[in-house]
Structures are given as structure tokens and as C-alpha cells.
Amino acid sequence: MQESNSNAISHNTVKGWLLDLYPSNRGEITLWFISETGQRLKLTDKYLPKIYVAGDEYDLWRLTKTLAEYKPVTAWGFTKKYANLSDTEKSKVLEITIADHRDALYLAQKILKLGYEALQLGNVDIPDAQAYLYDRDIFPLAFMAVSAQDGRLTYHLLDSVESENYTIPPLRFLWVGVEIAKVKKIPSFKDPIAKIELKGYRKETVIDGGDEQEKLLTFVRSLKEADPDIIFTYGGDYTLLPYLATRASLNGVSEQFILGREPVPLAAKLQTGTTFFSYGRIYFKAPMRRLFGRVHIDVQNTFIYE
Fold first, then answer.
1. Three-class DSSP labels, 31-75
2. Which long-range contacts link 207-215 to residues 24+ away (Cβ below 8 Å)?
3. Reduced to 3 states, what is the DSSP secondary structure of residue 28?
4. What is the DSSP letter of 238?
5. Could you give the angle at the alpha carbon of 206 between the alpha carbons of 201 and 212, nearest 5°?
6. Which end of the chain, C or N, has fewer beta carbons within 10 A?
7. Predicted pLDDT of residue 136
8. Which H helix or E strand runs over 255?
9. Which is it for the CA torsion 251, 255, 256, 258, positive or negative?
10. How do the domains of the chain map onto residue ranges?
């Protein structure tokens, strides 16, 4: 089994599949690839988010005279884009580069308050990772050649998003389940762990020995050894992972409770989910729990599994 490899690829070119990506340091995107040889590679790329403004060209030129007043703006210029879904030709739009995606909404509100209500603003509320994919013209699990030079990545797609006969990357899967030693009829986060079950390809591990702290640390070690790309859970987003993180905190091992490939402990803090109405029914979607460098799929909280 290949261990995770976090080395940069320097000036070399590597062929592989894009597994995960997310903003890391300011002006930087971290990406994880599965190479043809089975290595799990962590790469970083410089990236600053952009927003676009479309409308009357005179208004766009007037707007550029005020952009220097706003700290979030690092650069601006004109480019050609499809401004509307129904457009058949690209039109001239203003491209504004900002230092951080969190400044996008602030800047958009400032522009509208200046009296430019007729202007159209785009990419204001798109997450950085998604905007990066659009900007680089790549997509998740795409097979490509990646080269790095001077802190920047260059991609050569060897795949197509429209392809029906695509090659599946050599993914490693792991199912994680937890049995709670409940005190009352309904289990709670105050109840200790009875056992943790890990089910991978041709291997099953049951962690039920030792005290709770030992169970948690054995789980972390076993997960690191299995080094899965995708972790499946039932109720992991809203219940299972927050429960485990809470137990780790109560047992004094929260800093060691790392489930991703990055050295980032899983937070115990509960997050608010989203309630929405669809086809006459009310649904609740729990917040996603990110495991940096791995993909977590809660089969009760996503349509991806089906």
C-alpha cells in the first residue's frame, strides 16, 4: 500500500486524478491527487478569487476609477465572458481580482451602493474551490497531467467531462460505524463509545478493547494505516463525527483526533444545518464535515452515494 505523499512535484509532470481541493493559506488552493503509480500527492497552487461585472461599458469604466479605494481589490481588467445564460456571444466585462473570497460580498454591496443597480455581478457567492475549477477548466476526479513551476500548477486534461467511457481511479474505500454504550433509550453525546467498526476491502477491524481514550487513538491509527480516499458513514455529518469529536475532547485527545490527511483535528463544535422544501416535503440537510485530503460521504445526507 502506498503511503500519503505530501511532496511537491517541482518541475516534473505527474499524471493522475484530482481527488480533493480546498482553500488553505491566503491566496492558495491545496489539491490532492491520486497518481498513476498509486501515490497520494498533496500540491498547492497560487490562486486569487475573481468577481465579474457586466453592463454598460461607460458605467464599467466609471466604476474602475473607484476600485483603488477598496483594499480587497488587488487587480482589475477587461475580459470577454458570457454575461447571461441565454447569450450566444461573449461580451466585454470587468474582471476584479480580490485578496480573499470573504471580501466578495462586501465589495459587491459597495458597488451596488454607488448607484450601479443596472450592473450585473457574477461569481460573488461561488466557493473558492468551485471557482478555481472553473478558472482552470478542470473537474473533480478528472484524469490529467499536472506540472508545477514557481509555485503554480499547470494542467493538461487527458479526460472530458462529457466522456462516458472514463477510467475509474484506484480509490480506497472505508466504512466507519460506531456503537454507543447508551445509558437511556435514546443515545446522547454524553454516552461513552462501546465499539468502533472499520470495514474496508477484504478487511474488517473492530475496536472494542481498552478505555475510551484508547479506542479513539486506536481508531485514528487504524484510519491512518488504511489511508482511505473515501470514508462512508451513516449519519456522519450531523451525528457520528460530531459525537466522536466530542468524546475525543472529553477524553483529552482532541488535538490527536485527526481523520484527514492534513494535520487538522476534527472539531467537536455542532454546526447549523439547512432546512428546505421540495416536492411537497420538508427536508433537513446536515452541514458537511470536511476531512482534508479525503472525501467523506454520509449516505443519509447526500444523493451522491445512490
1. EEEEECCCCEEEEEEECCCEEEEECCHHHHHHHHCCHHHCCCEEE
2. 212/247, 212/251, 213/251, 213/252, 213/253
3. strand
4. I
5. 135
6. C
7. 94
8. none
9. positive
10. 4-47+131-157, 50-122, 173-298
The pTM of this model reads 0.84
pLDDT of residue 281: 56
Residue for cell digits 517541482?
10
Whether the CB-CB separation of 296 and 289 falls below 8 Å is answered with yes
- Alpha-carbon distance of 205 to 197, in angstroms, equals 6
Q: Residue with C-alpha cell 454598460?
A: 56
Fold of 173-298: Nucleotidyltransferase; domain 5 (3.30.420)
Integer Cα distance of 116 and 111 in angstroms: 6
The rounded distance, in Å, linking the Cα atoms of 255 and 44 is 24
Query: What is the chain's percent helix, strand, coil content, to nearest 5?
Result: 20, 35, 45
CATH hierarchy code of domain 4-47+131-157 = 2.40.50.100
Give the architecture-level CATH label for domain 50-122.
2-Layer Sandwich (3.30)
**Which residue is it, cell 472514463?**
166
Digits of tens for pLDDT over the chain (306 positions)?
A: 444 444 444 457 899 999 999 998 888 999 999 999 999 999 999 999 999 999 999 999 999 988 888 888 999 999 999 988 888 999 999 999 998 878 888 888 888 888 777 889 989 988 889 999 999 999 999 999 999 888 789 999 999 999 988 888 999 999 999 999 999 888 899 999 999 999 998 899 999 999 999 999 999 999 999 999 999 999 888 889 999 999 999 999 999 999 999 999 998 665 555 554 555 555 445 556 789 999 999 988 777 677
- State the chain's maximal CA–CA distance in angstroms: 72
Of 280, 289, 200, nearest to 240 by C-alpha is 289
Cell numbers given for 76: 482589475
Cell for 234?
A: 451513516
- Here the contacts of 273-276 (C-beta below 8 Å, separation 24 or greater) are 273/238
Q: Which amino acid is at 254?
A: S
